[in-house]
Amino acid sequence: MFIIFGTRGLKHTVKEGDTLYNSCPNCQQGNLVSKLYRRWFTLFFIPVIPLDVIDRFYECDKCSGAYNENVKSVLQHSKEDMEKEQQEAQRVYAIALIATMTHMSIIDGEFAPEEEREIMDNMAKFPQFETVLNETFTKVKNYGNKDNQVFSLLNDARNKLSSESLINLLAQAAVVLLADGKIEKEEENLMKEYLIACGLPKDMYYTLIEKLRARPLTEFGKEQMN
Ligand SMILES: [Zn+2]
């Protein structure tokens, strides 16, 4: 008989965690609830033994905005500073998203028109960052991950964004991989490399795939940024 075992990351609400009431920077109304991703040892795909904590973050109970633990100190700042932080997080998110999507599109050696359209649609969601997104697109389209440029951007994003946002980002980018309907083994490996570049364990791949499958693709653009 086969014994199938592995590891995967699961999201939990922290029971004793502090809740930051009515303080979501995105919707201004929701409560930020303390959450974490924990790695579990699985047997036949069922989580049986809890392992290490991958990341702690806050999630809004109203708009699902996810924030890294820094949000707590950011909330003490003036409204202006908070908006600046929020803006910066969006910028980092948008750049990493376009870089990853473009890299995924060229990885098989051909750049399909549907892939380009998908990237342009995503760029259009961030008109305030048009110039830098165009530069990122051109650089990655021409040079791929040369000098680790794509992985470095993901690594930068790690400092600003929660694990939840990073996984949302990769799931949103992976839409270009699904253009042909299924995920090839090489594409799976690539996504695991992206996770590692984000400072996350590759076990988070399954969480990523669940996000990708759980909702209609058009909804990804509405994902909160932080
Ligand atoms: Zn919210």
TrEMBL record:
InterPro entries: DjlA_N (IPR007791), TerB-like (IPR029024), Zinc_ribbon_15 (IPR031493). It comes from the Bacteria. Residues 95-195 form the Co-chaperone DjlA N-terminal domain. Gene3D superfamilies: TerB-like. It holds the Pfam family Zn_ribbon_15. Coiled coil: none annotated. This is TerB family tellurite resistance protein. It comes from Abyssalbus ytuae.
